[in-house]
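Handout, section B. The chain below has 317 residues.
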Amino acid sequence: MEHFYLHRLSPFLLEFSPGFGIRWYGLAYVLSFLAAYRLFVLLAQRRLAPINAEAVSDFITWAALFGVLLGGRLGFVLLYDFPKLLEDPLSLFRVWEGGMASHGGILGLVVFTFYYARKHGVSWTGVGDSLVTVAPPGLFLVRMANFINGELYGRVTQIYWAVQFPTELRERPELLEKTAFSQMAPEEALDLIRHGGAGSADLERVLREVLPPRHPSQIYEALLEGVVLFTTLWILRTKVRVPRGVLTGVFFVLYAVLRIVGEQFRQPEDFNFGMPRGVFLSLFLILMGAAFIGNGLRRPEYESGTSNGTSKSPSEE
């Protein structure tokens, strides 16, 4: 299987000492928040958001902390890693070990935006419409970080762009049995293949023989949830007169559909009712999205920057 790409990327942009440094995953979140801030300011300046441009920085900061990070972390430990949480409650706080759930982050933002809108007397659905419009670039960056980390990889395939992920050794250390590296721990093998050194060429040959080629599903999801979703929502937000709440609903529905498509190529981790958990949870997002769309169309209100738009004051909502 020499023609397949063997994944050798390090999760660190800069590694100051073993296991400590600047990780691509963390950098992806920082860049995501910066991109969301800049895009939100553009919407506010065009009166396509119910928040003034000067207030965007505080809003994005708190949304990042309490919506994305807290919601994403809670979502992961409750939905994907609950047994470990019961055994070791402090694992909830060890975010450097990885583990964020996009569904949890989305729900966290729903709760946070509701609180923010009520506190500041602005339209909840208007805030949500702007936020979902600027969120997909962050989804793109985080999915690309997933690829760099070699996590959340895809199903086995023989397509020519398939990737062999040495990180699979963490779940299947038996792959090295009956090889010259049978006594090597998975993390030791990963370190050798990433950084080179004595025996790295021999290890590479072994890995090419034992690792199945897989879909780079992280890249598929980055393009679907990042590029396709952002392009659609940005056009709707800036070019089409859409009632408040409808864009939020479109985000939920389209994200869920694109996530379900991506799950067809992703190696399932857990199942609910015979479905991959990502698919199962996405069904609830479709229902939520339909509710937002229905409510927005039934009681149409618009941002002041939309063509011929009329906006109710906070006291009228």
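Note. The chain has two domains: 5-156+214-316, 166-210. Compare this with the example in section A.
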